[in-house]
Amino acid sequence: MSDFALSPAARDVLSRLDSAGLRHRFLHYFAQLASIPRGSGNTRAVSSYCVQFAREHGLRCVQDPLDNVVIYQGGTPGYEDHPPVILQGHLDMVCVQTPESRLDLEREPLLLNTDGAFLWADGTSLGADDGIAVAYALAVLEAEGLPHPPLEAVFTTEEETGMSGAHGLDPALLRGRVLLNLDSENEGLFFAGCSGGSKRTVALPVVREAQDGLLAELEVGGLLGGHSGIMIADGRANACQVLFDLLAQLAVPCGLRLVSCSGGGKDNAIPSSARARVLLPPEHLEQARRIVRVFRSELHSSAMLQRYGKNNPDLAVTFTPAEEVRGCSALDHPSTVRFISLFRRLPCGLLAMMEDIPGVPETSANIGVVELEESRAVIRLSVRSALKEKCASLPRQVEETAARFGASCQVSGAYPPWEYRKDSPLRETVCRVYRQATGREAEIRVIHAGLECGILYEKLPGLDAVSFGPTILDIHSPGERLDLASALRTWEFLTALLAAL
Predict the structure, then answer these.
(1) Does the annotation mark 159 as catalytic?
(2) 125-156, pLDDT tens digit by residue?
(3) Which of 57, 80, 164, 231 has a CA-to-CA distance to 363 between 20 and 30 Å?
(4) Choice among 92, 267, 458, 464 that is catalytic
């Protein structure tokens, strides 16, 4: 394929990799993808690039209205009549950059760089999640003499913002019932299931009034945060949960009224900090101090460790009285109590573990964002389960709880689970080929997060799927980097697996 899409930085990196003996065709395609701006919502150009690839190689191709692309290739000699295999990844990437970076990620190519061990982009995310999947697939489709069954290469859009491409993909485009999803970031880990889930936004009407009192601030910090699915069983406390537990102890005995409250930043991240400004009658100041002092002293007691987890050594709670104010806009006492009670009755944290696979979360809920606005309090949750029935029952619990307090509940971003199959011929083949290629045993996992496999599993009855990929560090951050040795080993494994299929 022509080098029309290669930026100067990409050309330089490929030249250096070539000199070091690390050049591989899939890295050529990765460099081309890195030269095309392709953040979520900006995928038409990269989608058209894949269509052009198909045309230049004489391959049948479909580009749908969502910019999903499917490229078809027949089996190599001796494999023509084998069942087709789906190679799948997503075209969009998460675009983030350092404060110092001036790159226009909507229009300019990434500034690729390498030290021979890792590949990264200067000042921005790299997009190896999931550009490496597309690069692998294009390299397979181009390769001569590589044995494989008929292939259906599926490139979806908007995976990072709700998986709308996979949701909208026409299943009639696919005959394959064996899926290799190349959207995982830890070499040697093979995912054979994922949770389903959805986002819930609970909004509670509140009443404010001008009130006099002592203004004070409560703050919870020093926590690790993290991915609310993958890390939900790691014993990481939710800062919003800690804050509202304390507010509940203060609300009635101290006549506390909320002025402002905020915590977290994303519904799918465990909040690492939360704060509230409150109004107290001055005569209750000392009582409030005592309650906070006792609460703080018990943070690392066995009861608190059981509630918040054990991975919070730097958890800190501060209480800072300010000055007496007059006419402060604060929630009235009933609204304050209702808001605190609603929060504490919503599910939050790890709710169940998998029975078949030890150490894997089965069901969870994460209160990721809390905001107190002028006339409403907003709580944003992410709920997940590996079981289809709990994907339905847990959201109902949230909705019923909201309704009891007079709050509304909006749904967004729903995606189905990919349920673990006890019997999987594909998984057996993966394990055998990995053992032969590396001398090690493949580690099979179910991930407590969403993968497009769940959507495709629902669309394609009888689908047998596995998700894997090379080691990619610090995805969705300017520190994202691709382990080149791992990428080469994963390529070799992928081609051996295709031959075995």
Answers:
(1) yes
(2) 999 999 999 999 999 999 998 999 999 999 99
(3) 164
(4) 92
